[in-house]
Known about the structure:
Elements: E1 3-5, E2 7-8, E3 12-16, E4 26-28, E5 40-44, E6 46-48, E7 51-55, H1 56-63, E8 68-72, H2 77-80, E9 86-89, H3 111-126, E10 130-133, H4 135-144, E11 152-153, H5 159-162, E12 171-175, H6 180-185, E13 189-192, E14 198-199, H7 202-206, E15 211-216, E16 223-228, E17 231-237, H8 241-246, H9 250-275
Parallel strand pairs: 1-4, 5-8, 5-9, 9-10, 10-17
Antiparallel strand pairs: 2-3, 3-7, 6-7, 11-14, 12-13, 12-15, 15-16, 16-17
Helix pairs in contact: 3-4
Amino acid sequence: xxxxxxxxxxxxxxxxxxxxxxxxxxxxxxxxxxxxxxxxxxxxxxxxxxxxxxxxxxxxxxxxxxxxxxxxxxxxxxxxxxxxxxxxxxxxxxxxxxxxxxxxxxxxxxxxxxxxxxxxxxxxxxxxxxxxxxxxxxxxxxxxxxxxxxxxxxxxxxxxxxxxxxxxxxxxxxxxxxxxxxxxxxxxxxxxxxxxxxxxxxxxxxxxxxxxxxxxxxxxxxxxxxxxxxxxxxxxxxxxxxxxxxxxxxxxxxxxxxxxxxxxxxxxxxxxxxxxxxxxxx
Length: 282
């Protein structure tokens, strides 16, 4: 794989669009080669005009854990994650399949969605740990349950609660007793930040076999997180914990720690399955 280093700006890391000319680029942070003995997390990039990017809050939250990062562009996706032990799906605005949406503004899904789709299917097939935030949460359920997926539009009167500055806690969510989230947060209720225009309803989530609602906004019944019986090593949430973790919230950082621990288990298992445990795999 051809190593390509991202470029740092004040708020993000970026790389040019022409990186897709490489058959399977290995995209890394500037001056940050991956270290041996650590799991590698593949992080899907967003797009900003002619370049790919990832905002620094995602990167900083992940870097607080003892892991390696590589970044995924939208071509040759399966090839890029061959050495990844886990998958991270950030939030963002893009065109998903119009049949999922209550009020579609487009007729086809775009290239970014296809990258999400490929990564989710690869993680499902290989049982790789996965963490999805906001759009990553929505796309995970849609790809696994395409015939049951329905994205409702946040009602106008609830916009102020669900589309605020990500640095502010917009509303509270109730955590399901006994769920993985209740154990991580050691609480039955938490305050979260929100920035989304669509949501998954309780009825939509309940129609998906093996899906357990783990976090719910009590004021309007908007689902904020689920657990997947098939994949207990997956963690998907509607809000943006990376921003709060970057601001010093230890409880939100605990989500990333849980994800990193799952990646470490997958890394060890990968070595056992392929060549016996070797702590020096890069």
